[in-house]
Amino acid sequence: MATYKIKPLVVGLNETDQGIMTYQRFYGERIHLPIYVFALLDGPKKILIDTGLEDFMVPEGVEKKYGFSVQHFEEALASIGWKPEDVEIIVHTHLHNDHCENDYLCSNAKVYVQKAELEALHNPPAIDHRYYDDVLDDVEVIEVEGDTQIVDGVSVLLTPGHSKGGQSVVVDTEKGKALITGFCSNEKNFPENGPAIVPGVHLDAMESWESLQKVKAFGAEILIPLHALWVGAEKTIP
Questions:
Q1: How far apart are CA 38 and CA 189, in angstroms?
Q2: In the chain, which stretches have pLDDT less than 70?
């Protein structure tokens, strides 16, 4: 069985309100949200989870405060010895623009997306403005439906609600299964005590809640909320 180390690469940063992450909780608390690309190391293929933002601004002092560097996509890949054309597989958590703007640079990659999410890209829900119809024009797209194994050691769980076809990515590691959430969340969505909190941005609050329960019931040894600040400071996970 293939196992991987997950290398978080920070390829953008947003300043926003914590309520964007946590439905009906923590409004008025200003936070920074890192935008990640997750590179899977030590496996037989070069795999990325998401490709992040193309352009962004980094507020002064943020990198020192949080212990990570914010790099443009090509610079981030170069830090692990990769070039965009080396990437063989991209697995998308979802297709909001901050997760897929650099796909076009990965000319040799196969891109795995839930069918429902691809349909949303081309026919967005009326209340969702974060789909850019052309982001996958220059790549080979492979549709999946539901819970699916992508390659040995990497699989996806359908976890909609935040978007129509969000998928959480499960990666086999030497310390057990790591799960990267397919919906935008941070550490406050998964408190140590008490129930998980639905993402503040969603198309369907109850569907989001059900996806949270699915993630919790899966029981991954390592849970990686998609925008958690602690993730960026890790050299690799595990």
A1: 20
A2: none
Report the first-to-last Cα separation within the chain, whole angstroms.
Answer: 17
What is the token pair recorded at 34? 């890192």
**What was the pLDDT predicted at 218?**
98
- Sole residue written with tokens 């601004």: 57
Query: Would the pTM of this model clear 0.85, i.e. be above it?
Result: yes
Per-position DSSP letters for the chain, written without gaps between them = ----EEEEEEEEEEEEEGGGTSTTS-TT-EEEEEEEEEEEESSSS-EEE----SS----TTHHHHHT--B--HHHHHHTTT--GGG--EEE-S--SGGGTTTGGG-TT-EEEEEHHHHHHHHS--TT-----TTTTTTSEEEEE-SSEEEETTEEEEE--SSSTT-EEEEEEETTEEEEE-SS---GGGS-SSS-----SS-S-HHHHHHHHHHHHHHT-SEEE-TT-HHHHT-SSB-
32 within 8 A of 13, measured Cβ to Cβ: yes
Residue pointed to by tokens 């990515």: 169
